Amino acid sequence: MNIKVLGPGCPKCKTTYNNVIEAVKQTGIDAEVIKIEDIEEMMKYNVLTTPVLMINEVAKIKGRVAEIKEIKELINANL
Amino acid sequence: MFDWIQYFADWLIYRIFSIAQGSKLGDALNFFVYDTLKILILLFLITMVMGVVNSYFPVDRIRNFLSRNKLFGLEYLLASTFGAVTPFCSCSSVPLFIGFVKGGIPLGVTFAFLITSPLVNEVAIALFVGMFGLKATIIYVSSGILLGMIGGVVLGKLNLEKYLSPWVQGILTNAEKEGEFDEEKKNFAERLPEIFREATGIIKSVFWYILVGIGIGALMHGFIPTGFFEQYISKDNPFAVPIAVILGVPMYSNAAGVLPVIQVFVQKGIPIGTAIAFMMAVVGLSIPEATLLKKVMTWKLIGIFFTVVSFFIIISGYLFNIIL
After folding, report:
1. Which of A37, A69, B291, B316 has a 20 to 30 A CA-CA distance from B142?
2. What is the mean pLDDT of chain B?
3. Which residue range(s) make up the domain with B75?
């Protein structure tokens, strides 16, 4: 599984990233977690509000912090 | 509507803590308890209402709507209004800017959104209602939206595209109309938990700013004599507004931190227009914002943007002083 967190490094983006790491640890799956902070790179994904959480190249949560519980549900739904 | 909070504050400070009514400490503490409670309640109500609006009109949908439709000037009003409704996060301003440009939305309309977004937001509105009343709030919100609109029109007329960063100009030439926004099909009950979570998130993120702001405000309220500031910034000084704005532009604070202090300024004799112009300059323009925008524009464009917005903030400051 491929998980991406897009955000230019604001507190919300950092929280989301940490939540993703925690959720991956708790579910024990083998996932590649990438943090994208470069604006030009980010714009390729057509985002408007940050942070964005993407699973397997699909934006799942936009413009707000994703909770650990939510991320675990999303991970399980995409297994 | 808020009488019961005042009764509670009186009871808590004068009865339970038995601090003498009329003493400086008593007044300051009473003010702190009353203001904090009132503002947190208002903040919750307003973030919930804004959350509902946002849930049905997310920014993606607004962008796609503006991108697809020719609105004969009305797009400035719409962009500015939506800027007021969308919760502002400074780190979203750059992606938003690019997203709008990419959708083929004119630069002026994008600026209209960008100006109003930090200027009018849920936190500022809640604090405004609590501190200055409904009438002042309505004037503040409508003048904020008007300011974004006029600022956007003026900036749009200046043909500033050539001052965007080269990679943004590349996006501009490849701009294309956005498709229909495919909305999540959810009913109100399904949306509510998310709206509630968002609202409490916003309150959590500004909670300490509000507490510190009201704390400083309370101290000043209790210890600084009325009319104290007037000897420095009087209503008759014609340069008070521009000075306040020029001082405010480089500073950055969110509305939560700066408004409680401004309320005390006003109570102690500073004209409300001057105070509001100062607040708009502090929350609307700042050095951190300029450095963020540097990623998408040249310094020259940032300079023009800041100058135009400051100019209109100064004008609305004068207007506030006349109307209120």
Report:
1. B291
2. 84
3. 23-175+193-323
